[in-house]
Amino acid sequence: MRILNTLFNIVAVAYALTLALVLTSIVSESAIFNHIRTEAQILQLYKAFAGVGAGMLLVKVILSSLYSGNLRYEHHISQLKVNDLKVELYERRQEFRNNNFRTPITEEHLEAAAV
Known about the structure:
- The chain is mainly α.
- Helices cover 83% and strands 0% of the residues.
- The chain is built from 4 helices and no strands.
- The protein has helices at residues 2-23, 29-32, 39-100, 107-114.
- It is rod-shaped and about 115 Å long.
- It starts with a helix and ends with a helix.
- 0% of the residues are buried.
């Protein structure tokens, strides 16, 4: 997901640079697209740029949503693993404490209990 997000960001930057060059008239439309000669074709080109930009914005929103959802899921799974390890550590400590604090039963204790 990270690679897909990065690739899309690169494509979006290239698109934005191309659009900026065309809109600022640094590069003419006919220099990039050979078949554009009339004002109507230039208008169609700008409409196409707007449509592609809107589509890219929609894809970016969807990709960002999926990427953040994936990160939240990975964080949740990591937290579950941490909690499992904490439970295991707690159980081992309790077992260690129970084994160390037991007093051995001797004959003296048995005689004192019998009396």
